[in-house]
Amino acid sequence: MENKQQSNDVMKENKEVKKKVNWSGSLIVASLTGAFGSSFLYGYNLSVVNAPAVYIKKFYNETWQRRYGFSVDESTLTLLWSLTVSIFAIGGLVGAIIVTPIVKFFGRKCTLLLNNVFAVTAALLMSLSLLAGSFEMLILGRIIMGVDAGISLSALPMYLSEISPKEIRGSLGQVTAIFICVGVFTGQVLGLPEIFGQESRWPYLFGAIAVPSLIQVAILPFLPESPRYLLLEKHNTNEAEKAFQRFLGKDDVSHEIEEVLAESRVQRNTKLVSILQLLRTRAVRWQVVTVVVTMGCYQLCGLNAIWYYTNNIFSEAGISHETIPYVTLSTGAVETLAAVFSGLVIERLGRRPLLIGGFGLMVVFFSVLTVSLTLQNTVHWLPYLSIFCILAIIASFCIGPGGIPFVLTGEFFQQSQRPAAFMIAGTVNWLSNFAVGLLFPFIQAGLQTYCFLVFAAICFAGATYLFFVLPETKNKTFHEISQAFARRNKVILEMQEMNHYAGERKSSAEQESDFTSSVDNGETKKGIV
């Protein structure tokens, strides 16, 4: 009876802690400022090249003619334009590869700040390319902007996952996805003819990139570094305590400090885990596979193909060519609203149902879209069904697959493994992005409207894998998430044995310390009493 009463008291205390969790001012400002200068720019640069495409190609042709005395041929112009668009992904891959040593040496916050050097440099190059008469400046700016995006899409989720309490870690992590959508929408709005979507104004679209970067540089220095980075990698308990106090909005953070001290004790003599070491670590093998699958499906699920077809489908529905840019804003608005909705419900519904449900709904709507596009010339109302399917696919993507992969990467791994894990996730992300840009024109040419069945199959495969493998991670510590994967990683038996013999003599923090040590070594250790 006494044990049962103690258990009930502990449960009550945990519930009280969860109720007390709130969004402090520093936490809100850090997440919004970090995302505005990082993931916002990634989304913005995805859409910003669409509106001025005609004018940029004309600029390429005029520059070529001025230099060589004749107009550029169509194939060369197409190659230059394709290079301008796709080289962004190459820069992103470079950024994802170099992010690990940068976040280790400079920290998460300082990495975000230093990354603005790439953004401002790219903004200057691209906005001045017309004035300088050099299309090479525009292409170089795109690749530098890609480096910025590659770094930010790893450093930002890392920073957000480490400054947030586990009770709101998912909601805060979704800020990355929300600002990607806001960035896409902003690029669409600024690209309208009334604003910067004109031949004389298109360089301003690229010059605007510097604004979020400068805002981030002005605000972020006044906010703390990641407390987990300070405690576990810099071993600076005083600064970590101050950071926790700022982000949590309370003076007593002893509970939060103790939560990570076990990991800290183990990692004082632990170096940053390399990619090869992480891949060899048996205790996180299925976590790595799951990150690769979710990140691969994130890019290969066909959302880029939807953007390719949007204008044609709107035209088939009877919308005039002049009106299409304004109607296209509806896609950006739906994307943003769906991402915000996901951020509001992720801590109630969890990561698993949103991610699996999102991919599942995409399978359904891709299938319906294939039918409607194939038969739209025979039934007059089918183009409107196609428009609905496009909006539904975008919404389905944003409620789960659009942001949760970044959240999961931050939740699956401990401090020493997290940079290597984000490097793997970023590499898969950008390689898949480049592959879609390279292969989709051939898939579309060969399969026509049936190309969406390829993406439906990828979404179905991703949903099936996640249904059988992915555990729920909301409100769970690294230790609890590792236990959920332990059976698949074939470490559960050893861990149970260790807990059986040593459970009564070790605190829960010490047990987590033992398990964390075993994860670093790629195996579990049996307790010897």
TrEMBL record:
One of its GO terms (molecular function) is D-glucose transmembrane transporter activity. The keyword Transport applies. Its main location: membrane. Residues 503-529 are annotated as: Disordered. InterPro entries: GLUT, MFS_dom, MFS_sugar_transport-like, MFS_trans_sf, Sugar/inositol_transpt, Sugar_transporter_CS. Keywords: Membrane, Transmembrane, Transmembrane helix, Transport. One of its GO terms (cellular component) is plasma membrane. It is a multi-pass membrane protein. One of its GO terms (biological process) is dehydroascorbic acid transport. The chain crosses the membrane at residues 21-42, 79-100, 112-133, 139-160, 172-190, 202-223, 288-309, 324-346, 353-375, 381-408, 420-441, 447-470. It is found in: Membrane. Gene3D superfamilies: MFS general substrate transporter like domains (1.20.1250.20). It holds the Pfam family Sugar_tr. It comes from the Eukaryota. Residues 31-474 form the Major facilitator superfamily (MFS) profile domain. Belongs to the major facilitator superfamily. Sugar transporter (TC 2.A.1.1) family. This is GTR9 protein. It comes from Oxyruncus cristatus (sharpbill). The gene is Slc2a9_0.
